[in-house]
Amino acid sequence: MSAMLQVRDLVAGYGQAVVLEHVDFTVKRGEVVAVVGANGAGKTTLLNTIAGVLQPFSGSITFDGTDITKTPAHALPKQGLVLVPEGGRLFPFMTVEENLEMGGFSRRKASDFADSLEEVMQLFPILKQRRAQFAGHLSGGERQMCAVARAVMSRPKMIMLDEPSVGLSPKMVGEVFSLVENLARTKGITVVLVEQNVQEALEVSDRAYVLDHGRFVRNGSSAELGGDPAIQAAYMGL
Ligand code: ATP
After folding, report:
1. Could you say which DSSP state residue 216 is in?
2. 17 CB under 6 A from ligand 1?
């Protein structure tokens, strides 16, 4: 299987501060890959660098065979790469449907857009009920689903989710994660999931990377990492 994303020898940070130190990271087509680690490990920095929000100091990023190391953030959704930032960043005074429209604006034809909207409403039935409400009035879980749905509207090849479980009840975390799994299994969308909620992230992903102080200290199948007593003790409170 060819790689959807290949990050090589990446060094990134802010100003003089190096956060990611020579990171290698590969995601295969159709996989759900989790990046887990403590607060401040550099997970958001990794996603923002891949998404073009931050320019790396050195290293390379290849997405679906194209070098995107220097591609600006706004150009990536057209290439099929979408970031769902922490908290979702919806437009609170726009309705659910209008928010979804914003995700589909790169679809050229109106009929494509209508098809995407229909498809997304089927995947996220709760949004169908809420379509005319302001996004700012949604519950935390619904907001997260709306943010993921908005990303799906652009028909991405790959979605990167930054801590989708933050602030959600355990039940909602389960629902959001099973939707994420569903996107990968039924739509063939490749998923990168960044999480501090290590146990659930390992349950929903195929493979995982453990980030610690800007370096990957472990990677492997999620089942194997989840069963490892050292990982359980360090990250799962077991
Ligand atoms: P969290 O879960 O808290 O978001 P994280 O693993 O995503 O943690 P990052 O947000 O990538 O970690 O932060 C990694 C390091 O970079 C931290 O030491 C943080 O203080 C620093 N950092 C993050 N954003 C900035 C910024 N805009 N300017 C300077 N330093 C930053």
Report:
1. E
2. yes
Going from the Cα of 53 to the center of ligand 1, the distance in angstroms, rounded, reads 14
- For residue range 74-109, what is the model confidence (pLDDT) as tens digits? 999 999 999 998 888 889 899 999 898 887 766 556
- Answer yes or no: is 160 within a domain: yes
Whole-angstrom distance, CA of residue 221 vs CA of residue 66: 26
Number of structural domains in the chain:
1
What's this model's pTM, rounded to 2 decimal places? 0.92
Q: At 82, which CATH number?
A: 3.40.50.300
Query: What is the spatial distance between Cα 44 and Cα 22, in angstroms, rounded to a whole number?
Result: 16
- The number of the ligand 1 atom at minimal distance from the alpha carbon of 196 is 2
49 C-alpha to center of ligand 1: Å? 12
230-238 contacts: CB < 8 A, separation 24 or more? 231/198, 235/36, 235/37, 235/38, 235/198, 235/210, 236/198, 236/199
Is the CB–ligand 1 distance for residue 39 below 6 Å? yes
pLDDT, tens digit (0-9, with 9 covering 90-100), for 122-148: 888 888 999 999 999 998 889 998 999
Atom of ligand 1 nearest to the CA of 42: 11
Judge if the beta carbon of residue 41 lies within 6 A of ligand 1.
yes
Q: Residue 179 belongs to what domain range? A: 32-40+71-208+216-235
Task: Give the atom of ligand 1 at the shortest distance from the alpha carbon of 44.
Answer: 7
